């Protein structure tokens, strides 16, 4: 735990008692603050009481005595409408912050030189966060990894000059962190996402930019327009990362750029830094970008190239993100259940050929129409879930498909189809391009079930 001493002997209101909210309440209490916590879920309130946290309906407290409202990142700050607790705090002139802000203030107080790597982006941030932490740990560093990737930041050990915090940040978390100033700030990419919570793409991008603006060193992927513009505004102490579509574009890159091309990471002058060819957990151009960013971060923190290459080679990947589940003869089985929209599935389709594709679920806007250019990579499609009719209409005449309805029917059908084809390495790929909620509680449950079914094949 990181005790938060910056609010010692003051009252702090807290709304949202999920995992990170409960960790925040405990950290504030450990640092000497009086915490008044609440949640709309009575079970969460009861759990907090069981942990010794004082709870109170924030409608009835004296806001004139409150130093800050700590808001869980899942609670609306601005869109589609501010949560009622936000209105109460604003009416009393009370600042509204999140758990990342508490960490930043504690770091500034007790260990301002402690290395702090913050990673954001629409896609790839969890893989990049885990890869950076893995490389540093393999190189012998004391690493604490958390944030949006799953472990609440205040559950981690406190900042220290000899300890590196590698933290994934969502736009919601950044929005609640006005003093965000990491040692290294990473922006991978920006595509439309969470617009229901931020209003417009411009506002969403502006929130992401805050992470870069306050960083000592900024590392920015420049393969989308909003990110390129952010890099241009940043100016110095910047490393650009580029995955070229057209080699001619490389000539315009400045000397601070890293280029990820054909599974290798190069400096702008052509100097080769690392190679990810043959590393199953880092397949595909999107993972080349993730690897290039990790190389840049590790170099900035003084890790030798030999240790970086060793860390890349031993990276196990993350569950449900192009996870290699098994090989059976020539057939490779890949769990990409985290791909809940077409943009995410595109990354998997570009990484393989001779694909026996399991897809479907609760469709997102646009369906799989953006994936039409990749249909030539697909040997056969196996449809599951509520999106079957719509996806069949898009596949009709372009890709042979089978309506399987359930994952239990799709896995053996895809396995048999892959085994029967003549390709040297056919791939059974679960990359649904859909939310899971029609048949599963979460993408994790869907991916776990795929793994079970693959391992149960005869």
Automatic annotation (TrEMBL):
UniProt EC number: 6.3.2.9
Domain annotation Mur ligase C-terminal: ranges: 320-434
GO biological process: cell division; cell wall organization; peptidoglycan biosynthetic process; regulation of cell shape
UniProt-listed SUPFAM superfamilies: MurD-like peptide ligases, catalytic domain, MurD-like peptide ligases, peptide-binding domain, NAD(P)-binding Rossmann-fold domains
Pathway: Cell wall biogenesis; peptidoglycan biosynthesis
UniProt protein name: UDP-N-acetylmuramoylalanine--D-glutamate ligase
UniProtKB keywords: ATP-binding, Cell cycle, Cell division, Cell shape, Cell wall biogenesis/degradation, Cytoplasm, Ligase, Nucleotide-binding, Peptidoglycan synthesis
Residues annotated as binding ATP: 121-127
Major location category of this protein: cytoplasm
Cellular component terms (Gene Ontology): cytoplasm
Functional summary from the UniProt entry: Cell wall formation. Catalyzes the addition of glutamate to the nucleotide precursor UDP-N-acetylmuramoyl-L-alanine (UMA).
UniProt domain Mur ligase central: residue ranges: 119-298
A Pfam family annotated for this UniProt entry: Mur_ligase_C
Family: Belongs to the MurCDEF family.
Primary enzyme class: ligase
Localization in the cell: Cytoplasm
GO molecular function term, any single one: UDP-N-acetylmuramoylalanine-D-glutamate ligase activity
Source species of the chain: Methylobacterium radiodurans
Catalytic reaction annotation: UDP-N-acetyl-alpha-D-muramoyl-L-alanine + D-glutamate + ATP = UDP-N-acetyl-alpha-D-muramoyl-L-alanyl-D-glutamate + ADP + phosphate + H(+)
């Amino acid at each position: 735990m990181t005790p938060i001493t910056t609010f010692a002997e003051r009252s702090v209101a807290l709304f949202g008692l999920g995992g990170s909210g409960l960790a925040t309440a405990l950290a504030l209490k450990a640092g000497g603050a009086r915490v008044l916590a609440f949640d709309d879920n009575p079970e969460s309130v009861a759990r907090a009481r069981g942990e010794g946290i004082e709870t109170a309906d924030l409608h009835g407290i004296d806001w004139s005595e409150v130093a800050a409202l700590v808001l869980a990142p899942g609670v609306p700050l601005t869109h589609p409408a501010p949560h009622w607790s936000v209105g109460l705090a604003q009416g009393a002139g009370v600042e509204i912050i999140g758990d990342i802000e508490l960490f930043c203030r504690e770091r500034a107080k007790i260990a301002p030189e402690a290395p702090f790597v913050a990673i954001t982006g629409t896609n790839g941030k969890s893989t990049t966060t885990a890869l950076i932490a893995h490389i540093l740990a393999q190189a012998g560093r004391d690493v604490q990894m958390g944030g949006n990737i799953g472990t609440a930041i205040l559950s981690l050990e406190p900042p220290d000059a000899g300890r590196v915090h590698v933290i994934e940040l969502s736009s919601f978390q950044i929005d609640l962190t006005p003093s965000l100033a990491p040692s290294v700030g990473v922006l991978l990419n920006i595509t439309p996402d969470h617009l229901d919570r931020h209003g417009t793409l411009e506002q969403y991008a502006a929130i992401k930019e805050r992470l870069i603006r306050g960083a000592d060193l900024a590392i920015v992927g420049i393969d989308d327009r909003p990110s390129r513009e952010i890099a241009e505004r940043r100016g110095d102490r910047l490393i650009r990362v580029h995955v070229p579509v057209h080699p001619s574009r490389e000539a315009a890159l400045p000397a601070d750029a890293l280029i990820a091309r054909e599974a290798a990471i190069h400096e702008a002058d052509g100097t080769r830094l690392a190679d990810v060819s043959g590393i199953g957990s880092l397949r595909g151009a999107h993972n080349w970008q993730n690897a290039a960013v990790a190389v840049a971060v590790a170099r900035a923190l003084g890790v030798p190239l030999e240790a970086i290459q060793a860390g890349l080679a031993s990276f196990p990947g993350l569950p449900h993100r192009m996870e290699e589940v098994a090989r059976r003869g020539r057939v490779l089985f890949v769990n990409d259940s985290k791909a809940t929209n077409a943009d995410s599935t595109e990354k998997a389709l570009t990484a393989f050929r001779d694909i026996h594709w399991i897809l479907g679920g609760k469709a997102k806007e646009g369906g799989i129409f953006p994936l039409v250019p990749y249909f030539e990579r697909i040997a056969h499609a196996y449809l599951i879930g509520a999106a079957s009719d719509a996806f069949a209409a898009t596949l009709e005449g372009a890709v042979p498909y089978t309506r399987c309805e359930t994952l239990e029917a799709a896995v053996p059908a895809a396995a048999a189809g892959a085994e029967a084809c003549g390709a040297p390495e056919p791939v059974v790929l679960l990359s649904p391009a859909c939310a899971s909620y029609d048949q599963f509680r979460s993408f994790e449950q869907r991916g776990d079930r795929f793994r079970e079914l693959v391992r149960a094949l005869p």
